[in-house]
Design goal:
The chain contains twelve helices and four strands; from the N terminus they run H-H-H-H-H-E-H-E-H-E-H-H-E-H-H-H. The protein is α/β, with parallel strands linked by helices. It has two domains: about 100 residues, Methionine synthase domain (Methyltransferase, Methionine Synthase (B12-binding Domains), Chain A, domain 1, Orthogonal Bundle), CATH 1.10.1240.10; about 130 residues, Cobalamin-binding domain (Rossmann fold, 3-Layer(aba) Sandwich), CATH 3.40.50. The N terminus is likely disordered.
Length: about 240
């Protein structure tokens, strides 16, 4: 049943002139098989036909979106080990993209940020956060990744320490997403409302976007791929409200 669902997502063409192939389905299958080597080999095969840059948007992003749906639905008993492999494959691809940029001879793009991200307190589901970090860094953001189970105070302390204007709080379930409200209260208590913007993300906010307003966040993104645009919007809003 799961295999049929994966194949039903459709195929992706890897580069100009390449034969149509279910690249996304193959990549997800390797991830579900916890085969990091095979997953990276598939991405390298794609890059030979196109580029590692295109693999981020055209291959990795849809594969991670599909894997995230399987994770949320628990289809095929998707496991934490598979989530770990998915995150590592994304990080491997990001490392290749950044390394190629450094050796391209082109002047580096201006760094963005810094921003702070983490799983909200009591949340221990790292996949979404790791995807977010990968796409933000690929877009040029300097990211302070606090990991899982991050208290509201730790979010704000880190943001003030590094000079961040945006914090990204990830939560998978409603029970932990409620702690975003405590983050809102901590930001307000320290007089940082508006200056420090809160981006909330995770499966629960995708399924129930009204919770963004209910819990006091400033915005959300339906996918990790779209998150850099959200962070850019929130950063710009902070600067408009509090220049300098």
């Amino acid at each position: 049943m799961t295999e049929g669902f994966i194949k039903g997502m459709g195929s992706v063409t890897g580069g100009s002139g390449a034969m149509e192939r279910d690249w996304c389905g193959e990549l997800v299958s390797y991830i579900r098989g916890a085969d990091r080597v095979a997953a990276n080999a598939l991405i390298s095969d794609w890059a030979e036909r196109s580029s590692y840059e295109s693999a981020v948007v055209e291959l990795m992003a849809p594969a991670l979106e599909l894997f995230g749906k399987l994770w949320a639905d628990n289809a095929g008993d998707t496991s934490l080990a598979q989530g770990y492999v998915a995150a590592k494959v994304a990080e491997d691809l990001l490392s290749k993209v950044l390394a190629l940029r450094e050796t391209s001879g082109l002047p580096p793009a201006p760094a963005k940020g810094p921003v702070v991200v983490g799983n909200i307190e009591d949340d221990f589901h790292p996949l979404g956060r790791k995807m977010l970090v990968a796409f933000l860094r690929c877009d040029g953001w300097k990211v302070e990744d606090l990991g899982v189970d991050v208290s509201p105070g730790a979010f704000v302390d880190s943001a003030q320490e590094v000079g961040a204007r945006v914090v990204g709080a990830s939560a998978m379930m409603f029970s932990t997403a409620k702690n975003v409200k405590r983050l809102r209260e901590e930001v307000d208590r320290r007089g940082l409302r508006g200056r420090l913007q809160i981006a909330a993300g995770g499966a629960v906010f995708r399924l129930r976007p009204e919770l963004v307003v209910e819990f006091g966040a400033d915005g959300t993104s339906p996918t990790a791929l779209q998150a850099p645009a959200l962070f850019q919007e929130l950063w710009a809003r902070s600067v408009r409200l509090f220049p300098g």
